[in-house]
Design brief:
By secondary structure, the chain is mostly beta strands. It is built from two helices and ten strands. It has a single domain, classed as Jelly Rolls.
Length: 180
């Protein structure tokens, strides 16, 4: 039995040692290494109490939030960015419709990009939209340092009831295409 194992090992060793190989020409390799980065952008959940002032008993028609936008802090990303794609997912559990505006600002609060507004109808649980920016057509976008999201409650004949739980959930990501 021991001789059998030695013979099998010898045959396998010969097969591996006498295998066919070609010389590789690395000059003929066309390797494209263009990184793609996907990062979360803005996430929030607003309920009925965010749109209702308990003191006055009136609706709050507009809720805004401004966040730092640090993607372009790195000069490597600013120098190599070709395209940015923003994906938005909104779940509206309100019996009201909303308008959402997204605005990018530079460090001096100058607008660098405004994403076209979108309207989310009541009870739309799966609203999805994307916006794309080609950097060559809009290089000022690279100076963006802040992003502002405005959530506007569209007018209605009925007022929000602060005792009825309702929710709007907003998720967004940015996909950044680089060319090295």
């Amino acid at each position: 039995m021991n001789i059998y194992i030695k013979n099998v090992m010898t045959i396998f060793s010969l097969c591996f040692l006498i295998s066919c190989t070609d010389n590789l020409n690395f000059d003929e390799i066309n390797l494209n290494v263009d990184p793609v980065l996907t990062v979360p952008l803005v996430y929030f959940e607003l309920d009925q109490n965010d749109f209702f002032d308990n003191t006055t008993g009136l609706e709050i028609p507009l809720v805004t939030d401004t966040s730092d936008f640090r993607v372009f802090k790195s000069s490597a990303i600013r120098n190599d960015l070709v395209k940015a794609v923003f994906d938005f997912e909104i779940e509206n559990r309100f019996d009201r419709s909303f308008e959402i505006n997204i605005i990018f600002y530079d460090g001096n609060d100058n607008i660098t990009r405004t994403i076209p507004s979108f309207n989310i109808v009541s009870q739309d649980l799966n609203f999805v939209v994307s916006d794309s920016i080609e950097i060559v057509a809009s290089p000022v976008f690279l100076s963006s340092r802040k992003v502002k999201v405005e959530v506007k409650l569209n007018p209605s004949s009925t007022q929000i009831d602060p005792n009825v739980y309702q929710l709007i959930k907003f998720k967004s990501t940015g996909t950044f295409y680089l060319s090295i």
